[in-house]
Amino acid sequence: SLYVSEYFSQSAQKLSFYSWYGNAKLFHFHVPEDTVLLRWLLQASRGKGPECTSMEITVHFRHGAPPIINPLGTRFPANATVHPSYNISITLSSAVQNTTFVNVTTPAAGDWFIAAHLPEAVGRIEVKGFSTPCPYMFQADMFVLRLTDMPVLEPGVPMPHTVVSPAKPLHVKVFVPKHTSRMWFQLSSCITSEQRACNVRVLLGSITLPQSFQRSLTCTGSINCSLALDSPPWEKWLQIMVESLGTANASVSVEMLASFTVCRPGSTSSFLNFISLNQSQAGPRPGAAGSSAPAAGEAPRNASSQWSSCLQSQPIVREDLDVVSVRYRLLNGPSVPVNSLSPTLLLLNLNTGMDSGGSLVVNLLLNKTSVSLANATVVACVSAASPVLSLNTTRNCSTAFSQGYPVSVSTSSGEAMLIVLYPQTDDWFLSLQLLCPRGQGDCTSAEAKVTVFAYLTPCFNDCGPYGQCSLLRRHGYLYAGCSCKAGWGGWSCTDDTKAQTVGAQNLATLLLTLSNLMFLPAIAVAVYRYYLVEASVYTYTMFFSTFYHACDQPGVAVMCIMDYDTLQYCDFLGSVVSIWVTILCMAHVKKILKYVLFVLGTLLIAMSLQLDRRGVWNMMGPCLFALIIMVTAWVHHGAKRRHCYPSSWKRWVFYLLPGITLAFIAISVYAFMETNENYYYTHSIWHVLVACSVAFLLPPRDKHKKPWAWSQKLTCRYQICQNDREELYAVT
């Protein structure tokens, strides 16, 4: 056999601490057909700075769809199917880099996904620029070894082969046709080169993670052995590996035979279905991809009654609505007939390669008036690759190489729902069959009507009222995840274990909004001292900070008077400009220079905030430049007057020192104490401290100015002048 090795690589990604699915870094690979060995090369590294500590990286694997992970141990939504992913841990301790290999023999062809993340996030809000986080990098590379000339086992034709040695297993493949209900594999004429009974092991199927349903058949001391497989995957190549368990020098000769039992589907479609299809949805043609209408040659309903069909196929149309959003529409109406003789089958096409990043939702509603027998139950199975064709005997919805998901409706419980999170890329099938209690009438003639609603959505229930559905992207692959708020958690933000009550949400909103009213004393002081421009800036800051935090709340207590991004920008702009004008006002420079610096600084601050809104230098830069101007002006005034400026010790003790202390405490709270849990009161303290510091730091008014003397500021036709000169001499 000729083996070919191939290598696939993707760029490294910077890992994040985990708080929701968007923090996990996803890698998407495609394994080619006839692959016999898959090897992952996982490389993890960290920075060399003192802030870098030992860290454990968790890596998840899954075939067909992104892995379903739950590092936080939260609850999934009710009726959701959950298969924990296969994962390994990579520890970065003293070593800066770690290299790990993961081998998978006879892997399933198709999409494979890897997700990597750091442990749970601590929840501290870090100001960008105050601290340098340690970079943790992760890269996944894939090596595959595949056969270019894998022998094909033809159905019903015995194939002789030889296993040369235990180190060189035999690989063959067989194609499973559509509508196969059972596969029969037989190993005969199995003898060694020493004319003894063979000792071999046969592995049927490929390995998939997290669950692998590879079937094993061991032939020890017997010449012939066989294995039956119910519901093998339709229209797929099935790998078969035969390996010798004997001595290293003895070869084994075997003869393999694969046969299939194909059921005859009874079609419920007719020519009217195709007419309704063309009238209701333009574009798809009869028999095209996306429709499960039968191909030419399948018997119509009246003719198929001549044979005992093993399933009834219902025509269904796939309707693409948006990205990771699909609706399935039944051509014969939303209700499908279900009987006890053969299962009713619906094809849900999810094999485009872009459907595995959402949630498949199947709703069943039983028409209770259509069931003639009491206590009758309609059982259903949702499975991938092949349908479950024996629901009356197989209650766990298992097929040859996969595990389906059961769901049922009855006269006592007429509605049921199933949610398949991140369904794997494949053809999915919904099988329904009527089960009657024993001894209750004639079950063969009974029929039930079940309304089926099936659709693919990015996020189930749009993540609810306490979550936001985000569309994530890795190269050209799109998938969705829920970002929860207000203490809610879980895959669809349905876990209320740590959820905030409505009272707590209202309290948080009131604290963050009403704390801005502490700017009113600063505004009053500025107006009293005739700093009207500064008072206008403080009013602007108070207004937009109040309504930004009213719109920024994660719960139900939310009010947005305009676009969220606009409110956030105006809040950040007002905060930085308030600090800018306050320090320049303290500098006591000439008015014309002060107002020029006001306007020029505001324009530069607006530009820098547009470039990077959360950068620490957007606030620290203007503050430091204004402080340099203030210190320079104070030194100039002190040198000119030949004493310290400001000269009054009362000004220093009762105003400047308290204001500076409040400002430093506010900066410390803002930069080092805020977390996601205490944000609503620590940020409120920041509002109060900043507003109070402004009221203390504003300089006194000029001595020659009399506030509120508005009449002297108005220009009149007649003016009364007052002579303040003293009379030195009197003429008599």
UniProtKB/TrEMBL annotation:
Record's keyword annotation contains Transmembrane: yes
InterPro entries linked to this entry: EGF (IPR000742), NGX6/PGAP6/MYMK (IPR021910)
Keyword RNA-binding: no
Intracellular or extracellular location(s): Cell membrane
Transmembrane residue ranges: 507-531, 592-611, 617-636, 652-673, 679-698
PROSITE patterns in UniProt: EGF_1 (PS00022), EGF_2 (PS01186), EGF_3 (PS50026)
Membrane-protein topology: Multi-pass membrane protein
Domain spans labelled EGF-like: 455-494
Record's keyword terms, sorted: Cell membrane, Disulfide bond, EGF-like domain, Membrane, Transmembrane, Transmembrane helix
An annotated GO cellular component: plasma membrane
Disulphide-bridged cysteine pairs: C459-C469, C484-C493
Family designation: Belongs to the TMEM8 family.
Protein name according to UniProt: TMM8A factor
Organism: Gymnorhina tibicen
